[in-house]
Amino acid sequence: MEKEISTAVIRRLPRYYRYLGSLMDNGITRISSRDLSRRMGLTASQIRQDLNNFGAFGQQGYGYNVEKLYYEIRKILGLDKTYNMIIIGAGNIGQALLNYINYQRRGYNFVGVFDKNPKLIGLNIRGTVIRDIDTLENFLDNTKVDIAVLTLPGNDAEEVIKIIIDKGVRGIWNFSHMTIKTPPGVVMENVHLTDSLMTLSYKLKEESKE
């Protein structure tokens, strides 16, 4: 039976990946858990515990080989593969995501963008033409899509989710305000932007008390 990894640990992995990438860019070849903890605001013990969930990556007295650990975490996160993605909802958030070029560098390949707004259909954004959402089912019949990004209003999301699941999409990145239950074999990551903003306002409020 595989060991179950907590969600908190999984959510820290991308942070490790980013910091290690930055270390590599700065020519740093090895780092101790103590030094890494100072940079990340975590304890050295927490870092060791997190990484030990996936194997033994460090050496006592040496620390971590930065490049090796970077590529190990890359594999753990599944970033050694390429994922075909579509965006459904080409409004402000959808277009902002499409314009963020780092996705492609990390193996996420946008293959289609869909919307129902006639004013948006046909627009070309970074070489990707916005398609009519009525063509979505036919597109999915002919194109392998791993991840669908939902940036449309919540009342439209439920119907679209049923379509993409029926057509074999197994990953959903959901920016709509609705949290929808998915069947076994389909994973959804819900992104609530206002939650992050409200968390920031709470921290500001607490900071003002000091």
General description of the model:
- By secondary structure, the chain is α/β, with parallel strands linked by helices.
- 46% of the residues lie in helices and 19% in strands.
- It has helices spanning 7-25, 33-40, 44-52, 66-76, 92-99, 102-105, 136-142, 154-166, 193-209, and strands at 30-31, 58-59, 63-65, 83-88, 108-115, 124-125, 128-132, 147-150, 171-174, 187-190.
- The longest helix has 19 residues, at 7-25.
Count of helix runs:
9
> How many structural domains can be distinguished in the coordinates?
2
Mean pLDDT: 88
CATH class of the largest domain reads Alpha Beta
Q: Quick one: overall form? A: globular
Distance between the termini: 48 Å
- What proportion strand? 15-25%
Classification by helices and strands:
alpha/beta
Helix content: 40-55%
Strand arrangement in the largest pleated sheet: 6-7-5-4-8-9-10
Got a strand count? Answer: 10
Cα radius of gyration in angstroms: 20 Å
Give the CATH H-level superfamily of the largest domain: NAD(P)-binding Rossmann-like Domain
Question: Can you describe this structure in just a few lines?
Answer:
This protein is α/β, with parallel strands linked by helices and 210 residues long. It has helices spanning 7-25, 33-40, 44-52, 66-76, 92-99, 102-105, 136-142, 154-166, 193-209, and strands at residues 30-31, 58-59, 63-65, 83-88, 108-115, 124-125, 128-132, 147-150, 171-174, 187-190.
